[in-house]
Amino acid sequence: QLQVVESGGGLVQPGGSLRLSCAASGSIFSRYAMAWYRQAPGKQRELVAVITIGSSTNYADSVKGRFTISRDNAKNTVYLQMNSLKPEDTAVYYCAARIGGAYDSWGQGTQVTVSS
Questions:
Q1: Residue 51: which residues within 8 A CB-CB, separation 6 or more?
Q2: What is the pLDDT, as a whole number, of residue 101?
Q3: Complete DSSP assignment for 54-66
Q4: Tens-place pLDDT, residues 11-25
Q5: Residue 43 CB: number of other CB atoms within 10 A?
Q6: Contact predicate 14/116, CB 8 Å
């Protein structure tokens, strides 16, 4: 099973940018579809972005045009570039992986706080 570790979170002002990274190990990364989820305080975890093994992408409506998911199979890493950040983007961001069926490999999360 793939293990994943997120990094890159932090405090940023509204309108700013952050790039999250998710480093994978323990299996053949290129065989896994990857996703970023987020969970804000008091809210359910929501899907933010997905990238398939063929690098097709899909995004939540709330982040379309602002966030970009990408993967580097040579580095076993998936990224989430977040631009034009808003206070409502504040959440713990999680990386997840699946090779079929549900996402079953999860990281511990990285906190993103958007505040002035």
A1: 33, 34, 35, 57, 69, 70, 71, 78
A2: 87
A3: T--EEE-TTTTTT
A4: 999 999 999 999 999
A5: 9
A6: yes
